[in-house]
Amino acid sequence: MLDALAPARRRFLLGVLALALVAVAGLGVAIWRTHDKAVEPVSQETQGPVLLVPGYGGGTAGLEVLAGALRAQGRDVEIVDLPGNNTGDLDRQAGALGKAVILALQRAGARSVDVVGYSAGGVVARLWVRDHGGGGLARRVVTLGSPHHGSDLAGLGSDVAPDSCPRACEQLQPDSDLLRALNAGDETPTGPKWVSIWTTDDRVVVPPSSSNLDGALDFTIQSVCPGHEVSHGQLPQDPVVIAAVIRQLVVADPAVPGPEIC
C-alpha cells in the first residue's frame, strides 16, 4: 500500500506512524511503572501521629471521646476535617486525607501514621492506601463499623429519595462502581497492618457483616464481650470499643483483645 504513494507522502506517513509508536510505547512504560511500583511498608516499631477519619456526614465532634482517650495514652491525635461535609465523592475525601497525613508527618517529624476510620471514614482510608500513596505511610489502619461492601440503607435512600442521596451515599450502595473496584482482588493492599472492628447491633451498616474486611484482623465487639450492646453511632465513644482500638495501635502486632476490656 505504501509503495503506491508518492515518495513525499510516504515519508510523511511513516513519520506519523513512528511518532504514534513512540507515544504508545511511552504510555505503556508509564502504566507499567505505575502498577509495578512496589510499596515499602513502614516500621511497625515506631508510632507516629494518629489520624481519625469521620464518617458520612458526621463532622468531627463524634470522634472527640476517642481522640481524648488516645491522647491520654500519649498519642499525637488529629481529627481530619474532610470536604463536602463528608458526603461528597469518597475518592476526593481520600485525597484530602492524603494531604492531612503529609501535614501531620511534617508537623510531628514522623515517618508514618496510624489511621482510624469510622464508618465511611474506613472506606476513605482504604481508598487513600490504594490510590493515594498511603501504603508507604500508614503503619496501622483500623476501621470501625465501616461499610466495606456497602449498606442496604444507602441503597434504600437512593431508591426512596434520590435527591437526598449525595455522591458518597451513591458510592456506599452495595455493588456500587467504587466499592466493586475497591474490593476487586486484594481488599487490604500491602503496607499497613489492617484491623476491622464492628458491632452486630449495627442498624446503619446493613447487614453489619458488610464490615468484614478480607485480609484484616476482623472481629466484632460481641465476639469479645458477649451481650455488650453498642450501636453504630456509639462505636467511637463506647469504652469497650475505645479499649479495643487502643490495643490495635500499640507497637505489638494487632490481636483480638481479651475479655478484660469488657
UniProtKB/TrEMBL annotation:
A GO biological-process term: lipid catabolic process
Record GO terms (molecular function): hydrolase activity
Record carries keyword Phosphoprotein: no
InterPro entries to which the protein is assigned, alphabetical: AB_hydrolase_fold (IPR029058), Lipase_EstA/Esterase_EstB (IPR002918)
The UniProt record lists the keyword Membrane: yes
Pfam families in alphabetical order: Lipase_2
Segments crossing the lipid bilayer: 12-32
Protein name per UniProt: Lipase
Protein source organism: Nocardioides agariphilus
